[in-house]
Amino acid sequence: MARVRIERGGAWDRAVIENELGSPPLDILPVCWPVITVDGQVDSDATGWLAYVAARSGGPGIPKTATSYAESLAQFRAFLADRNTSLRGATRAHIVEYVRKRTVDDTTRVSGNTWARDRSAIKQFYEWLRETHCIEPPITIDRLHTSRGTLSSMREGRNVPKSSAAGTPLDPRQARILVSTAWEHGASGAANGTLTGSRDAAFIALGLACGARANTLTHLTIYELPDKGEPGDLVEMRLPGSTGKTQREVRLPAFRRHLAHVYNYATPDGGSRQMLIKDWRPDDPIHIAQPPTRNFHGITDSNGVKRPFNTMTADERRRLLTPEGQPAMLFLSARDGAPLRYATAKEITGDSSRVSEMHAINRGSFFPHVHTHDLRHTYATHLAALFFLGVPAGPGADMHGRPHRVDIRNAVLMASTGLGHVGPDTTALYIQQVGMMSLHHTVDDFLGKT
């Protein structure tokens, strides 16, 4: 059992409690903030601060800030518990070691955004502890003069850029965990078995399969998935330019192992997407008369207008209706069957990641915090690792009839071509991560055959 756990506060069912206890419960307000326990005992300092954060945030239920900070503080508290000390007993040496663990060490390093959250939680906790209990913090607080005024800043771990968030690829096992978490638990963290779990798992799996940005994933149609019957572990997929950053169509190899989740979700015969379809219809629909053909990657509407997928805007895509009169967008809302809103889609990966993190903490293990862009980074890293390990990148062969094996730099450049990673700093980051991942995982791991 993990030593450090996060217990979720919130309302309770009085009838259930009365049934269990045999008497009515006392009329006491529920705890509306996360509670951190160590070895089954409430950590009063951590929980007291989270109560303060929740009260400061306001609003009904458990504020998102308190939940996020609880995850950060629980990770730090678990680190200290392994060293037989407490939050009050932490020294600057502990802080320096923890910074290294979260920002440098290859096996436990997190994204720049996640570390920024962790650092903010640690700083604010120790500032609160100093103000409420007159305890000097084990961190160095500097006063910085900025355009927004004078701000307090924790010196330790300050130079980790948020842009390094793109540097958090999941390994094959973590990718499976994230998809499974979305499928089984959804954003709430409780096993729900709802249709949104299948949809969210398909969204994450598609990001892992092709590395598309969140905006592109959200606005893909059912017609743009690769042919299910196409052979091979890597199948060609075309990503439209109109919903991407570069405004150009990209053709790239997609991982069949991840596409399998998407096919299961999208199949009209028993897939959960079909169960999400309701009576929703757009105000100004575009009726599809002719789906894509072998010679035209797009649709022809009922007015005879040809609309290539590559140039079709997000708004036009949301208005598409299939010949059966149903939305043509791949991902739909569980509430009314409308195409999923981009703002909602952006939260899917982060919400599932938080649940995976919480489960990891409760097991005494580690899971990095990731967003949809990290799925893109995972895709490129896994693809480059495959090229480096000798998976054919094309039809050519060497003089012995074997696939050409490329060095790690060329493998990274080949994998990143479709994604637009051309900066030397980004390429160097990939080289390091692909090298580490190739040491610990095989071709079969990346292709889902283990």
Automatic annotation (TrEMBL):
A Gene Ontology BP annotation from the UniProt entry: DNA integration
Record carries keyword DNA-binding: yes
A molecular function GO annotation: DNA binding
Keyword DNA-binding in annotation: yes
Xref: InterPro entries: CB, DNA_brk_join_enz, Integrase-like_cat_sf, Integrase_recombinase_N, Integrase_SAM-like_N, Tyrosine_recombinase_XerCD
Keywords: DNA recombination, DNA-binding
One Pfam match: Phage_int_SAM_1
Domain Core-binding (CB): 40-130
The protein, known as: Core-binding (CB) domain-containing protein
